[in-house]
Amino acid sequence: MSEIHRIKCGNGNCYIISNGKNGILVDTGKREFINQVIEACKLYNVQLIVLTHAHFDHAENAAQISNTLRIPIAMNEKDCSLIESNTSQSLSATTILGRVVLSVSLKDFSTRPIPKFRPDVLLNDCDSLSDYGIDARIISLPGHTNGSIGIEVDNKFLLVGDALMNMFYPTVSMLFHNRSDMLESARKISSYGNRTIYFGHGKLVSNKKWVK
Ligand SMILES: [Zn+2]
Prior knowledge:
Elements: E1 3-9, E2 12-18, E3 23-26, H1 34-43, E4 46-50, H2 56-59, H3 62-69, E5 73-75, H4 80-84, H5 96-111, E6 121-122, E7 136-140, E8 149-153, E9 157-161, E10 164-165, E11 171-172, H6 179-190, E12 196-199, E13 205-206
This protein binds zinc ion.
Zinc ion binds at residues 53, 55, 144, 162.
């Protein structure tokens, strides 16, 4: 049995999935929060960093945490271009709030380059994280970015990164590189049924039908 610990980093979250002995860090937060995230990793004996995707607010601290704790970084290969530049995959929005978030994000993308790293582990759909002592599987959730992934834990919890968002209210991702992929990923999340959803932004909710 695992527990999910939320580390609130401003308007974003990272999480530690813990089995009581060791843990996996999911996303790394913005640089303003690095000390808080590293302290939490030590508390839960974190052995691996998983990035749901490589936008700076999730990946900015990856290199430093990996170096400090000497633990590997895992992510999907299709987001490696984002480590070079967060603008390498275009983003769009359809709602008014989405456009506001998009304009703020684009400003940050151009002024906050991610400290460079190369992922040690490349993750794909259905990959198991049991080697790290956690009963969890990777779910491919493209759309917000090409390489977006989620993590299903204990058939109970779903960590979805930015494949869904709860910044203002729980919704499909307000920002997307590919809208039809994003909607398909939201349908995929719904198909898991009774799960607790952990967002990259906002408080957890119960799973539901995300797309009409
Ligand atoms: Zn994102």
